[in-house]
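Every protein is a chain of amino acids, and every chain bends into a shape of its own. The fold becomes a row of whole numbers, each drawn from a learned catalogue of backbone shapes. The protein below has been through that process, and both of its lines are reproduced in full.
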Amino acid sequence: MTSRNLRLRRLSRATSALSGRKRGAQPKVVALGGGMGLSASLAALRRITGDLTAVVTVADDGGSSGRLREELGVLPPGDLRKALAALCGDDDWGQTWAQVIQHRFQSKGDLHEHAVGNLLIVALWEQLGDHVQALDLVGKLLGAHGRVLPMSAVPLELQALVRGHDPERPDEVDTVRGQATVALTPGEVQSVHVVPADPPAVPEAVAAVLDADWVVLGPGSWFSSVIPHLLVPDLLDALIETKARKVLSLNLAPQPGETDGFSPQRHLEVLGRHAHKIALDVVLADEAAVPDRESLADAAKRLGAAVELAPVASPDGVPIHDPELLAAAYDRIFRMHGRIGPWR
């Protein structure tokens, strides 16, 4: 066993002992991602479990997050804020606080487009000097139905090898830097990596993955929100070693720029190329978004997974996940594809 795996095991045992929690009547679920895709997953998962942890990417370099990151040298808070908002309840308290932390100032000065939640999170980081403690405190204030953790303790720069990033040189491969730029590239993303190349994982995030019953990856921006979790070595090791079952939730449509023209099965192929040892149990896709079910099943099988098709899209035709439908799909998967703990 490698020294890293020994460290992961010790961390899991230590965290479980400190928490003193026993497996109860509901599954422990860890959801990985960022942006609106993770928010959709969290809004669904909080409906079916009260033991929920979000592990959030920290590579954002655009908008309010990018400005705070550049000026103060902090982790980008935006995706963390969105995850906290998604975990707010449907009562007046939860919805009021969700709106408050998502509120953006409109002005002609330095506050323009800064989100209230971003400023609150960064202020608590500076006051407490602890990323996890500060996020836990914000979650307590909001009455969040779960916990939010950054995936790494340092801000990351996302870099991508992109073919045809310059439309005048369609066959050349360039290195594109920054999550915001990668997400909007007009070229074809070949692969992504992060700088620094061996970033430290947040110990609580690693421990949560090791102690989970289910790990949910996706939906979300594939190269800039989903795959980055596989590029943090200790987090990837935890995903490989955990006894939790793993479900990958596919997007409803390709993302303009980043995954333009990608089929559902191609999403699985590029994920597998970035993490050769990763194994999945279930791939969840909207039944209307899969034109070639056999090819998707073959791609999923190569990752060790079965495909579950379910109507999870918003009924109004907009390519966003419906929280109630997605919750029903997750609940069915958790019940039908094996149980780690006696939560039913």
Notes: Residues 12-23, 340-344 have pLDDT under 50 and may be disordered. The first strand starts at residue 28 and ends at 33. The radius of gyration is 19 Å.
